[in-house]
Amino acid sequence: MKMCSDRRISLPIIMLLLAACNNNPVKTTSSETAETNSGVPAVMSYELVNIYPHDPTAFTEGLQFVNGYLYESCGEYGVSDIRKTELVSGKVLQKQKMEKQYFGEGLTVLNGKIYQLTYKEKTGFIYDQASLKPIKKFRFNTAEGWGMTNDGKNILFDDGTNTIYYLDTTSLQVVKQLSVNDEHGPVNNINELEFIKGYLYANQWQTDNILKIDTGTGRVVARADLSDLRQKLGIAPFPPANETAPDVLNGIAYDAATNRIFITGKFWPKLAEVKLDN
Ligand SMILES: [Ca+2]
Asked: How far apart are CA 195 and CA 177, in angstroms?
């Protein structure tokens, strides 16, 4: 999520209160590396390893790293696209624009195909990974489409609530649902996703938190606060000062071959390689 004109910071007080209730990590000692006995998520610290360029006009909605390249879905009506970019230069190597009635959302690459959600159009797209050419559309039934990833078998997506939906790649039907919870209850606004070493990682919309989720139970087992990443990258604090300024953190990608994690955000001019300690 989401579009500039509908960024929901028009409800700042409610959102901040919700964020305060849901997101304030309870302090744990640095030696704790997993969910505590009380169910409180462990604190994940992070280390900034590298900084790469990122297209500052990209309203990032989905990000994945595959065979040396970043695949990204960018949103907003009229300018949405999917693109393949070079990590070190940030150069866009290939791009496929979407029709103006679609707002691009989460993206994932699996078995030579790129799957992509749209925001309110209940329409998913499948593209050929090599050419980025559209192969087909499919329908999904949630009110909104937000983040997407895959676990090597199923596609996982979310709709801005605390529910993760598992899609069968052949039938494109939902075959399983997972509810994300922490010690306070449901964790809503689950957004961009990434599957890393058996755990589901998610950023939570309008926060700079990265959550580590046990896909067996839906529990948040660890949480990283990346709010000072903006400063390290030279990016102005949230909320953005205008419609083209860097917006929320959104975009998590993982390179399993080198164990690197990449983080960026909507209209961020930089992309960070980070290490998470948990
Ligand atoms: Ca991702």
From this structure: 16
